[in-house]
Amino acid sequence: MEQTNSVNADPDPTSESMHSFLLILEVLGLCNNFAYVVMLSAAHDILKKQENQNSTATVTSTLDLQAGNSSNTSIYDCNPTSTAAVLLADILPTLFIKMFAPFVIHKFPYGFRILFCGLTAAASFLVVSFSSALWMSFLGVILASISSGLGELSFLALTVYYSRDVVGGWGSGTGAAGVTGALMYSGLTQLGLTPRLTLLIMLIIPAAMVLNYFFLLVHPPSLPQWRTKDPRCPGDEGKTCTVPSSSSGLCVISPCPCAHEQGLLKFVLPLGLVYFAEYFINQGLMELLYFPDFFLSHAEQYRWYQTLYQVGVFISRSSLCCFKVRKLWVFAALQFLNTVLLMFAVWFRFMPSAWIVFVIILYEGLLGGGAYVNTFYFISKETEERHREFAMALASVGDTMGICLSTALSFPVHNYFCTF
Fold first, then answer.
1. Per CATH, which fold does 15-59+71-228+257-417 belong to?
2. What's the 3-state SS for the chain?
3. Torsion of CA 368, 373, 374, 380, to 10 degrees
4. Where are the transmembrane segments (predicted)?
5. Inter-axis angle of helices 354-382 and 298-317, to 10 degrees?
6. What is the Cα–Cα distance from 387 to 5, expressed in whole angstroms?
7. 8 Å CB contact between 287 and 79
8. What is the pTM of this model?
């Protein structure tokens, strides 16, 4: 495998060890995004259960599924609250972390970060499973957001300690999280398990992340695992950015790369637009794409929309080994066409069957995953070595910002259509 300059030399540059590292990083990517994906897949159930609790004044499992929404007369069978409310709780903490953490995260070693991510992910499943009020459910969703946001930022920064090819492994793993999380939630509930029991089973995922990171991943000697400063760089008090040189083993002190943020816009803007369009579909329109004569209930249709979207994301995030696309604006343009098509489908209700929507949702996921993995690959390739770790962490704010803006638009759209 071709060797590339990175912040630190690979701990073992052999082909076999690199393959092993890619596999471990895929598992870490899967574990990191798993809770986030499950909360979005469960969004319809979370809101449905809380509505049922309010109408019957009983306290039961937070996520016990009820088929159909008998309390509303909308032709779209709407929940009183848009599923975008769950997305908002699932993304705002992530946005805050990604906007501010890159400037201070170096003060916290990787070991502490990953352990914290595992604990908050486990807490999110427990809180949502046993909640008896809507605010408790949203607290659990927020915990999942904190875990995935901090984890994504940390693992993307971690990839610069290895060959840039490992970005493909991370992308594939996060794509697999979408498929695995959505499929497990949809499949287990479809088999008859309650959503509460399904979420409790998923506690194995945060445990797997912590175990893989601390016991299977090979860490470079220079990685700040439990210490805030590189032992080879005396006098580093956080006022400058200390970058160990991969070639000499010495420390190179350079100004912090804040001035290079503008250079990231060519990557961040297309990524943000792609995610704005696709999450407006996912949380603003997907719940409204309801086919009452289909063999699946409304809740089941929503779950499988989410699952097929994640299948598309997984396929495209695993595509770097086959081809790369440098023109990132193509993804944004095509995704906006998808949004316009599905917006008209909701408005005029001309789609004859949910099967056609399934295909469009799968294609939507392909575009979103392709935009993500190509963005970070080309950032790692085109950014100066000394700024690469900072750039990988900061650029992740693009997709999160797009999701937040789509959420703001999803609320009025949901409320408008649900008046019919």
1. Growth Hormone; Chain: A; (1.20.1250)
2. CCCCCCCCCCCCCCHHHHHHHHHHHHHHHHHHHHHHHHHHHCHHHHHHHHHHHHHHCCCCCCCCCCCCCCCCCCCCCCCCCCCHHHHHHHHHHHHHHHHHHHHCHHHCCHHHHHHHHHHHHHHHHHHHHHCCCHHHHHHHHHHHHHHHHHHHHHHHHHHHHCCCCHHHHHHHHHHHHHHHHHHHHHHHHHCCCCHHHHHHHCCHHHHHHHHHHHHCCCCCCCCCCCCCCCCCCCCCCCCCEEEECCCCCCEEEECCHHHHCHHHHHHHHHHHHHHHHHHHHHHHHHHHCCCCCCCCCHHHHHHHHHHHHHHHHHHHHCCCCCCCCCCCHHHHHHHHHHHHHHHHHHHHCCCCCHHHHHHHHHHHHHHHHHHHHHHHHHHHHHCCHHHHHHHHHHHCHHHHHHHHHHHHHHHHHHHHHCCC
3. 150
4. 20-43, 84-105, 111-131, 138-161, 167-185, 197-218, 328-348, 354-378, 390-411
5. 30
6. 13
7. yes
8. 0.75
> Which of these, 272, 409, 290, 399, lies nearest to 332 by C-alpha position?
272
How far is residue 377's CA from residue 326's CA, in Å, rounded to a whole number?
Answer: 9
Residue with tokens 């797009």: 402
Count Cβ atoms within 10 A of the Cβ of residue 297 and give its class: 0-12 exposed, 13-18 middle, 19 or more buried: middle
Give dist(CA 118, CA 11) in Å, integer.
25
The contacts of residue 224 (CB under 8 Å, 6+ apart) are 106, 109, 110, 230
Q: Which tens digit of pLDDT belongs to each residue from 172-218?
A: 999 899 888 878 887 888 888 988 899 999 999 999 999 999 998 88
Q: CA 83, CA 411: separation in Å to the nearest integer?
A: 9
pLDDT in tens, 238-252: 444 444 433 333 333
Hey, where are the domains in the chain? 15-59+71-228+257-417
Tracing tokens 């992340």 back to the chain, one arrives at: 209
Which amino acid would we find at residue 327? Answer: K
Residue-wise pLDDT for 6-57, tens only, equals 444 444 444 555 667 678 888 999 999 999 888 877 766 776 665 566 554 4
